[in-house]
Specification:
single chain; four-stranded mixed beta sheet; alpha/beta; 25 helices
Length: about 700
């Protein structure tokens, strides 16, 4: 059984980073014991493994081998409270939300630690006074570095934890306040219920600790009471003891780094500094911290879910509410995020409706009209051209016109022969007897620049329409012989459209894809760096230590993003359907629900990106790298029937493909949920959202 006065026992801990040639050992069989109700000072240079050791004790890092017991149980045991309310943690980073006030910061972390309102309020008032904090309404972003560290320290002290772990708490703090902090820590441990583990660069201030551990290269060089260490090594300062032990450690063989000889007070270390009896007396006064518990005194480590209630695995509404509050505060106090969230969709919809689908205007064409007949039918044809679409530039010489067109001054040339009018009459009067020369002379010759296919198609359509109108008017004006004007029409008749109208354009085709892609990618951009920023600033770490679960973090983000997505959906649909009058033949409710599903789909994808990426650059690369494949393969810009068959199967697997097909069927055809293409849009949207959220939660849990 574990001794009752032992708060923390670390035995034989090994931890490394990297693999192969890049393998870097950080903890090398480290042993440490911290008694309950004491202050333990962990001293050592930067990079010696102090923070890694603390994170292992908090259950934030997996270690390779060894045993860690906190208050009788390993960390991460269900219901144990580590991580959770049993422990208070102050990391090296300030790890505070810049958008919060001091009051909101303490309220947020107090809620995560399940504090009652009256106790929370009393603790806030006490800590503001103790640490000389600015007014509670002060924003964290407006505080100095030292003030932020004091607020961070207040967060760790807030819920009066049984175990307090402080990583460099006094850095940047003035000497007077440092003295008050130490006085409070000493008073905190007097009752014997609270234990403090503190790391510091100010080695001499650790004299006030009950016990210190001097750490170097992943092992403890010594572990005992400060006065005993100085007396044993005959040094006036702890810094002198530390330097002496470092020099001795550097001179010993490397394989002895993790041996017990590095623990102070061994008989072999007596040398010229005293006799065995003196050493034994010092060890006795140092208490149990001067030695390790033998293996038989360590509790049996069980990884079974013990302690707590059977419902501990369920998300807590208080934690979810606190994190929802946190996310909304961050959004409200960041005007750039609000503008990005709600102004960008308006701009994107307006630009799409104004810039896409409208017929090209002001297309310059070189016109070479060589017709010399007094009938002047060539000019009549030119009058039928739409002047808004085609801007005519007369030329007397075809060669000059063609050369200017090749220089890019015109989109093409229109040429009519000198005998155009007479040959045109002959062509209609003689019918089947007409010769090839007459046909050639009565033809309007057009050459176009086909580098821009959409402009070329617009020119072809405009010229064809103008020619049909011109011929109909011409045949109607001929009195003898009487000719039916319909003879000039193509022998191809199109009836009433099955769906859509004759006025439908490319905008109507692209609108469903644009609606869903705007909502989808806005959600991706809003969430793709969510966890990365909080992880980078130490905020996510502090949230985990407070006892938050991965499901609680995920649910809070889903709720907040759903509200934002709902507003974005309303904005996009109002502008698309009402202001720009894109037709909707189906159920508006189905359109809204499908758009919301796609927003949640984008949010889930963004959270997945944020959970797997370590930095903003990789998240941006993954998000932007997936933008064009999703756009090009989802049928937004071009029908899927034009995609090569092997690639088409991948297109249908994209998260937006069936949703876009579904929305087209609703808007243009008025189909209900009974149609395959419609319900598949809803099914695939839900399936992708569910799968991505599960993968995100899994990645967060694994990385937690």
């Amino acid at each position: 059984m574990t001794r009752k006065n032992t708060a923390l026992t670390v035995q034989g801990i090994h931890k490394h980073y990297g693999t192969g040639k890049n393998r870097l050992p950080v903890l090398n069989g480290l042993n440490m014991t911290v008694n309950q109700g004491t202050i333990y000072g962990l001293l050592g240079a930067s990079g010696c493994g102090k923070t890694t050791l603390l994170r292992c004790c908090l259950g934030r890092l997996r270690y390779d081998s060894g045993t860690i017991i906190i208050c009788g149980k390993p960390p991460l045991t269900q219901g144990h409270g580590v991580p959770g309310p049993m422990v208070g943690y102050m990391p090296q980073e300030t790890a505070l939300y810049e958008e919060f006030t001091i009051h909101e910061t303490l309220t947020y972390f107090g809620t995560l630690c399940s504090m009652k309102k009256d106790k929370l309020q009393a603790r806030k008032e006490f800590l503001v006074e103790l640490l000389h904090l600015p007014t509670p309404k002060s924003l964290i972003s407006n505080l100095s570095g030292g003030q932020k560290r004091r607020v961070s320290f207040a967060v760790a002290l807030l819920h009066s934890p049984q175990l307090l772990i402080l990583d460099e708490p006094t850095v940047g703090v003035d000497p007077m306040l440092r003295m008050r902090i130490w006085e409070h820590l000493i008073n905190l441990t007097k009752g014997g219920k609270s234990t403090v583990i503190i790391t510091t660069h100010y080695i001499e201030e650790a004299r006030q600790a009950d016990s210190v551990g001097l750490m170097r290269s992943g092992v403890l060089l010594s572990e005992s009471a400060p006065q005993d260490l100085m007396h044993y090594h005959q040094m006036q300062t702890l810094e002198g003891v530390f330097l002496k032990l470092c020099m001795r450690d550097a001179s010993e063989p490397q394989e002895m780094v993790s041996s017990d000889s590095h623990h102070t007070m061994n008989v072999q270390d007596v040398g010229d500094y005293g006799n065995v009896e003196n050493v034994e007396r010092i060890k006795e006064s140092a208490g149990d911290t001067a030695r390790l518990l033998p293996d038989e005194e360590l509790p049996e480590v069980s990884h079974q879910k013990s302690g707590g209630t059977r419902w501990d695995f369920l998300p807590r509404t208080s934690n979810i509410s606190a994190m929802i509050f946190k996310s909304f505060i961050k959004l409200i106090r960041n005007p750039g995020s609000i503008l990005f969230s709600f102004l960008i969709p308006i701009i994107e919809v307006c630009l799409f409706c104004l810039c896409i689908g409208n017929p090209p205007r002001g297309l310059h064409m070189a016109v070479i009209n060589m017709d010399t007949s007094t009938l002047n039918y060539s000019q009549h044809f030119l009058w039928h051209l739409d002047n808004d679409t085609i801007v005519q530039h007369p030329y007397d010489n075809f060669t000059h016109a063609f050369e200017d067109a090749k220089k890019g001054e015109y989109w093409g040339t229109i040429y009519m022969a000198p005998t155009y009018s007479t040959d045109l009459i002959t062509r209609f009067v003689e019918g089947t007897k007409v010769d090839n020369d007459t046909i050639e002379g009565s033809t309007v010759h057009v050459q176009l620049d086909l580098t821009n296919q959409q402009i070329a198609l617009s020119l072809e359509q405009s010229l064809s329409t103008a020619y049909q109108d011109f011929i109909s008017d011409l045949l109607s004006s001929i009195k003898f012989p009487k000719i039916n004007p319909k003879i000039a029409e193509l022998p191809l008749q199109f009836g009433e459209p099955i769906y859509g109208t004759e006025e439908s354009d490319f905008t109507d085709f692209m609108a469903p894809g644009v609606i869903l892609s705007i909502v989808f990618f806005l959600a991706v951009s809003m969430t793709s760096i969510t966890f990365i920023l909080e992880r980078k600033e130490g905020l996510l770490e502090r949230t985990w230590v407070a006892g938050a679960k991965a499901t609680e973090v995920m649910l809070s983000h889903v709720v907040v993003q759903f509200v934002i997505i709902a507003v974005q959906t309303a904005i996009v649909l109002v502008f698309i359907l009402l202001i720009f009058d894109v037709p909707n033949e189906g159920s508006l409710l189905m359109v809204i629900v499908l758009t919301l599903f796609q927003g949640l789909n984008g949010m889930a994808y963004g959270l997945f990106v944020s959970s797997v990426c370590d930095n903003e650059i990789s998240a941006m690369q993954l998000s932007l790298g997936s933008f064009y494949p999703l756009i090009l393969m989802s049928g937004i810009m071009w029908p899927l029937e034009g995609v090569p068959y092997p690639l088409m199967y991948f297109s249908y697997m994209m998260p937006q493909t069936y949703a876009i097909i579904c929305l087209r069927c609703i808007l243009a055809r008025g189909w209900s949920i009974n149609y395959f293409n419609v319900y598949m849009g809803f099914v695939t949207s839900f399936a992708w959202t569910f799968v991505l959220l599960c993968l995100s939660a899994l990645m967060i849990h694994l990385r937690k």
